[in-house]
Amino acid sequence: MKWVWMIFCVMALLIIAGCDGRQSAFTALGPVSSRITLLTWIMFIGAAFITLLICALIVISIAGPADWRHKLTSEKSIVWGGMVFPVVTLTALLIYGFLVLKAGGTLSQAENPVHISVIGEQWWWRVIYRHDDGHTTESANELRIPTGRPIEIELSTADVIHSFWIPAYAGKVDMVPGRTNILHFIADKPGTVTGQCAEYCGGAHALMSFYTVAMTPSDYDAWLAKERMDAKPALAHEGEQVFLSSGCAGCHTVRGIPADGKIGPNLTHVGSRLSLGAGILPNTKEGFAKWISQHKTVKPENLMPPFDIFSESELQALSSYLDSLE
Ligand code: HEC
Ligand SMILES: [Cu+2]
To answer: Domain Cytochrome c: where (predicted)?
Structure first.
């Protein structure tokens, strides 16, 4: 019997580990997700209550006293319990559900929303910030947002269907080829959470994650101004030479040097992001070296070609160059 308990404890621990608030539908950090969480609880508690009631009725109908059993089969019980009750409950839930759905929609009339576009790509996120003067700058695999302001995200895809989901802030919204869907939400307080692609989109789908960082409005404005700038000149950094001469620039943009590839993530400020490879590796010099030399093992099937061509010193130079792009 001991091992049964051990398995039980391990399973329970695994389940509890899922409660880490960073990516949990139970940790709502804004008004839109709070409404969804409340709906979840109402449905869960209501369904549990109804299930218990049905169990009790089954027991009564099998082993209960004769007059109770008789009452259960009367026409009145069938009409009230079997028809009126489900119709009333389900209609009320439907109306409530529509109101919850509309909650994000009402934000669309809000003034001064923050405009961000996110494009799903196999298997990473292209993120485009629209500045107040209409100018745009591109980043990837990380969302930065100010607290307290309505956020308006335009969701689209470059290839197959993906689904954009930050459980802490809003419900999931699909990214469908040929369409643009709009998502609205507000972040109540500063903090870092994660989001995930929630629609199977091929090989590396499970490794298509991203960080969302909510910052105070002043921190956000400062960050956005920095993000808008070109990469600092690296003063003929050896790693920059390796980057430019190895074909990286064919797929990656680094604003400020002759690198304007559009196929992969924009790397202009890659060193200041929290992760590499869409939430897969830590953003450190070692992380860059690991990505460049082993990305096919770290993230199987991702669409960057393998690069086994570098000597150790070239790899180190390239990694420290990328790490310096803050
Ligand atoms: C054929 C196009 C292509 C070439 C050439 C290429 N990459 Fe990539 N790179 C990609 C794609 C696509 C991704 C996204 C992979 C993913 O996460 O699924 C990527 C991801 C990356 C990332 C992670 C970025 C992030 O936002 O997390 C880094 C760093 C990177 N590449 C560096 C390089 C370097 C250095 C070179 C040259 C040695 C290079 N790449 C060459 C296409 C390319
Ligand atoms: Cu996916």
So the answer is: 234-326
Count of alpha carbons within 13 Å of 103, Cβ hemisphere only? Answer: 21
The reply to whether 201 and 248 lie within a common domain is no
Q: 192 phi and psi, to 5 degrees?
A: -120, 125
Asked whether residue 10 is assigned to any structural domain, the reply reads: no
C-alpha distance from residue 307 to each of 95, 204, 257 (Å): 55, 19, 21
Q: Name the residue range of residue 94's domain.
A: 29-108
pLDDT tens digits, one per residue of 18-27:
556 788 888 8
Residue with tokens 């590839």: 261
Please identify, among 52, 73, 108, the residue that sits at the C-terminal boundary of a domain: 108
Interval between CA 129 and ligand 2 midpoint (Å): 22
In whole angstroms, what is the distance from residue 279 CA to residue 178 CA? 27
Is position 15 within any domain?
A: no
- List alpha helices for 231-281, DSSP H: 238-245
Q: How far apart are CA 311 and CA 19, in angstroms?
A: 43
Residue nearest to atom 39 of ligand 1 (CA): 248
Residue type at position 236 = A
Give the residue whose CA is nearest to atom 8 of ligand 1.
304
Q: Provide the whole-model pTM.
A: 0.88
Q: Could you say which ligand is closest to the alpha carbon of residue 306?
A: 1
Residues 266 and 205 in one domain: no
Q: Per the structure, how many domains does the chain have?
A: 3
273 shares a domain with 213: no
Tens digit of each residue's pLDDT (9 = 90 or more) over 85-129: 999 999 999 998 888 877 666 676 677 899 999 999 999 999 999
Which amino acid is located at 153 in the chain? I
- How would you label 26-62 residue by residue, b for 16+ Cβ within 10 Å and e otherwise? eebbbbbbebbbebeeeeeeeeeeeeeeeeeeeeeee
Q: Indicate whether 219 and 135 sit together in one domain.
A: yes
List Cβ neighbours of 240 (8 Å cut-off, separation of 6 or more): 234, 257, 321
